[in-house]
TrEMBL record:
InterPro entries: DUF2851. It comes from Flavobacterium urocaniciphilum. This is DUF2851 domain-containing protein.
Amino acid sequence: MHEEFLHYLWVNKKLPFTQLKTHLNENLEINHFGQFLQNAGPDIFNAQISIDQQKWAGNIEIHIKSSDWYAHHHEKDSNYDNVILHVVWENDSPVFRKDNSEIPTLELKNYIPLSEINNYQSLIVSKTWINCENHISEIDAFIWNNWLESLFLNRLERKSEFIDKRLLETNFDWEAVFFEMLAKNFGLNTNGECFYELAKSIPFSIIRKESFHVENLEALFFGKLHLLEEAIEDDYYLRLKKIWNYLKLKYKVPTTMVQQPQFFQLRPDNFPTIRLSQLLNLFANKQNLFSQIILANSYVEIKKLLECDTSDYWKHHYNFSKTSKSKSKTLSKQFIDLLIINTIIPIKFCYEKNLGKLNIEDLIKLLEGIPPEKNSIIDKFFEFKVKASCAFETQSLLELKNEYCKKNRCLKCAVGLQLLKN
């Protein structure tokens, strides 16, 4: 038995209202089930009950065993002084308030039908991948679509915590935070953290001042990564080295080593040298990029704003030591789509939320114009007849798998609740 199941029974009123008695055989009526807030303190707030026609108003605590009250040290916590009912699966110990009066206890195990318990247990018993894999495709379309929207909103709320924290640290310098998030996502999974720490390590006031000279930006970033310290006879390399030596003295840039970028097992087009050059050229050639991104509402507008190439040098290089066949290295459509999903959407969400002008429908519409992402999680959902037609749906499915299925939060999931009702 899990406490989450008892929460489910209470919140969804799965109790025989006319038959309830306390552990002392007193008649118990639930006049108001209260609010399940999941905050610190009792599980249920502002409930109303009657015990032998005596009315009580206050909070309710739910446990598997009544002795859990003492195991969790609630007797020492003033937040629990106003508990009027202790709801448990098994009453194995009397529980007392600080004034030594006994808290009425409702023992549930004799009130819940076996069918309800079997339904719950069949749902939470792990299958090969997710608990509901045999039935998830049968969920009503209206419930499913509403749940996808809730999942997407949850995902954005969770991602926004990281951005909101950084905004506070930068005194709400939106441009700086936007640039850091862009850097992180230009680095992809392999170099994302390295690029993010790199962007943070150079004061954005310097980046802003030098943003009109892409060579200066490349010198700053490659220099900070200690990639300009070898004895390489290459005109561009030597020029960047000279600029770096000047800029680090001019701005007193700390030369402390940040995390080193990884080249190993990357396709050449994903080398950190190439991705950094693309990022810095984007920032240098698209002045006021943040403002333009915020004002843009359509996929076409945003895609055009994010289109960029490397500096000329990197069109025939992947690193400083060797030339390669010359080719343009513009951002692919797939890469731009990833930037929109992982950078633009979260930033727009945070910005609109801060202004009090959030329009979630516009963000969903933007993602509906992007093809579905391809990864092992989406492929696995497809095996169980759950098909995604756009990036909005794949983002929601990723949230479902990582934040609900992996954590066995079936009773917090619209799919799990619907299957229990069925």
